[in-house]
Write a structure and sequence with these properties.
With 286 residues, the protein is an alpha/beta fold. Helices cover 21% and strands 8% of the residues. The chain folds into 2 domains: 183 residues, 3-Layer(aba) Sandwich (Rossmann fold), CATH 3.40.50.200; 59 residues, no CATH class. It has a 5-stranded parallel sheet, with helices on both faces.
């Protein structure tokens, strides 16, 4: 019987910046994160902390002082995972994984085509101070839902793991079918998988719904930046231009009263999107 590994809580490997000495009456905000991973490869992880072009990264390191993902369970729907890897062992839940390819409760990367799941797991939750790299949520727990691809895969495997997504807080699927809209849930081939995804989104996380991330997409994108083809939902919208310009996102910006940092950031992001839409589709910006 496999025993669950618990998340690592030792902080002896974290490098803590020395405090800045100030006059007793001075009050200064924090100038940067104090939790700096000492993992050997962290300095090369430009997507987390870009030292060459500051700011061109995920802007996540400043959050780690307060939150690293502790308490969140992420299910990796992918190939097998080398959960003995020093970057993953501390955060991997061997008691919760399932292998739909071999039909057993062990998602270990046992074949030569099983490398992808290990890489994805490291990007998500490689632990602090345990190896070469750091994940974006280094305190989160992960578990593997192994499937095969190509000749080693099947729709039955996919449907099974879509059902298992309801048992985790966040599900990661860094894979796709070739072509657009190939997985049509209205067809008999994909109906079971579609129903399982809907079920996870409705009952996962104790009824809050499992978070199923969308790969290759960011909230700041306009639709034509996603690479997806525009499918006209109406004869009145043969292209993306009509919905972007109606009801006047350029000339009638929505009123806001930003009274907090997050609101100001959202308002600024909204203005950037409006300006981009106006520049792209010709209406003068307000």
């Amino acid at each position: 019987m496999k025993l669950a590994k618990t998340a690592r809580t030792d902080v002896s490997n974290y490098l803590i910046k020395p405090p800045i000495l100030l006059p007793e009456s001075a009050v200064m905000p924090s100038l940067g994160p104090t939790l700096i991973p000492d993992d050997s490869g962290f300095s090369s992880q430009w997507h987390l902390n870009n030292l060459i072009f500051p700011g061109i990264d995920l802007n996540v390191t400043g959050v780690w002082d307060e939150y690293t993902g502790i308490g969140v369970l992420v299910g990796i729907v992918d190939t097998g995972i080398d959960y003995n890897h020093p970057d993953l062992a501390a955060n991997y839940r061997t008691d919760l994984d399932y292998d739909a390819r071999d039909l057993d409760f062990d998602s270990f990367a046992s074949l030569s085509d099983d490398a992808h799941g290990t890489v994805v797991s490291g990007v998500v939750a490689a632990a602090l101070g345990d190896g070469d790299a750091v994940g974006v949520a280094p305190g989160a727990e992960i578990t593997g839902f192994r499937v095969g691809f190509g000749a080693g895969g099947s729709m039955a495997q996919i449907s099974t793991q879509m059902q298992n997504m309801a048992t985790v807080d966040v599900a990661n699927n860094s894979w796709s079918y070739s072509g657009y809209f190939g997985d049509d849930f209205a067809t008999s081939t994909f109906a079971a998988a579609g129903a399982a995804i809907r079920n996870a989104a409705e009952i996962g996380r104790g009824g809050l719904g499992t978070v199923i991330r969308m790969d290759g997409w960011r909230r700041s994108m306009l639709f034509d930046e996603t690479g997806l083809p525009w499918i006209p939902p109406s004869p009145n919208m043969p292209t993306l231009a009509p919905p972007m310009l109606h009801p006047g996102p350029c000339t009638r910006p929505r009123a806001r009263r930003p009274n907090a940092g997050n609101q100001r950031q959202l308002a600024a992001a909204e203005r950037r999107l409006r300006r981009a839409a106006c520049a792209r589709y010709g209406e003068p910006s307000a």
